[in-house]
Specification:
By secondary structure, this protein is α+β, with helices and mostly antiparallel strands. About 40% of the residues lie in helices and about 15% in strands. A hairpin with a 2-residue loop joins strand 5 and strand 6. Helix 6 packs across helix 7.
Length: about 240
C-alpha cells in the first residue's frame, strides 16, 4: 500500500485510497496504516487493539476509502467510534416525530461533533417537539429569541418539560433566516456562543425543530444509549455552552 508523502498534516477531508482487497481483510491492516501514518505524517499513533477494531470498523471485501476523520488513533478512540456508529444507526432507524429537514439537521450536527472529537447525540422526539413548538411560536407571534411571552413556555427548560423531557442540564440554539439544514448549521458555527452550545460535551440527546426559516435546536443530558457505557472524548477547549 502506497501513501502520498506530505510535508504537513492532511486536511480532515483527505482520503487514502486502499486498492488491495487482500489488505482490507487482513487483521494487520490497522496496524499497517498506523505505522505508515506515523512515518508519513509524524503522528504518534499507538498500536491498536486489532480485535476490538475489527469488531468496530466495517472491513468489507471490496476496496474502500479510509478518511482521516474515520481513522482511530487510540483504543479509546475505537470505543468512541463504536458508540458514535451505534447512535447514528439508532437515529437512522428511528421513526417518530421528526420531519426530513429536522432529521438532516441532527445528522449534520452529529457529523460535525464527531469530526471535532465529541460524541454523537441521540435524536429525542421530546426535544424535536419542544424545539419545533418554539420555532412555530416565534413564526406565528413574530418574535425571535429564547424567551417566550407565555409564562408556561417562557424558558427552554419549561418547553422541554412540557414535552416530558427530564434531562439536565439543557441548552438551546435558535436561527432565523436559514433555508436549509446546512445553512442553519453554518449560521450556528459562525456564532461563538451557538458553536460552543452545539459542541457541549455533556449533551447526550438533541432535537431540531423547524418552522419555515426559523430553526431551534434543543439539547439535554440523561444517559448514553442503553447497555453502552459512555465513551471518553478527546480533550479540547470550549467547555461552556449557551443555555
Amino acid at each position: 500500500m502506497t501513501w502520498p508523502r506530505r510535508t504537513r498534516a492532511p486536511e480532515l477531508n483527505n482520503t487514502a485510497h486502499i486498492h488491495n482487497s487482500d489488505l482490507i481483510t487482513n487483521e494487520d491492516l490497522l496496524v499497517t496504516i498506523a505505522a505508515d501514518l506515523k512515518a508519513t505524517y509524524h503522528y504518534g499513533v499507538r498500536p491498536l487493539d486489532v480485535a476490538l477494531a475489527r469488531r468496530t470498523l466495517y472491513m468489507p471485501e471490496q476496496p474502500v476509502s479510509v478518511t482521516i476523520r474515520e481513522f482511530p488513533s487510540s483504543r479509546d478512540h475505537v470505543v468512541r467510534m463504536a458508540y458514535d456508529r451505534r447512535v447514528l444507526d439508532h437515529n437512522a432507524a428511528l421513526g417518530g416525530a421528526a420531519e426530513a429537514s429536522e432529521i438532516r439537521q441532527v445528522l449534520i450536527t452529529n457529523e460535525y461533533r464527531i469530526m471535532l472529537g465529541r460524541t454523537a447525540l441521540v435524536r429525542d422526539d421530546r426535544l424535536v417537539l419542544s424545539a419545533r413548538g418554539h420555532s412555530q411560536e416565534m413564526a406565528k407571534e413574530g418574535y425571535f429569541g429564547h424567551f417566550s411571552p407565555h409564562a408556561e413556555r417562557r424558558e427552554p427548560i419549561k418547553r422541554m418539560r412540557l414535552q416530558g423531557y427530564r434531562g439536565m442540564p439543557v441548552g438551546e440554539n435558535c436561527n432565523r433566516g436559514a433555508d436549509s439544514p446546512r445553512r442553519a448549521h453554518d449560521g450556528w458555527c459562525h456564532s461563538s456562543g451557538h458553536h460552543r452550545g452545539l459542541l457541549q460535551r455533556s449533551w447526550t440527546e438533541m432535537g431540531t425543530g423547524r418552522s419555515g426559516r426559523l430553526w431551534t435546536q434543543n439539547f439535554g443530558r440523561t444517559k448514553p444509549l442503553p447497555e453502552e457505557s459512555e465513551p471518553k472524548e478527546d480533550s479540547g477547549p470550549g467547555k461552556g455552552a449557551e443555555r
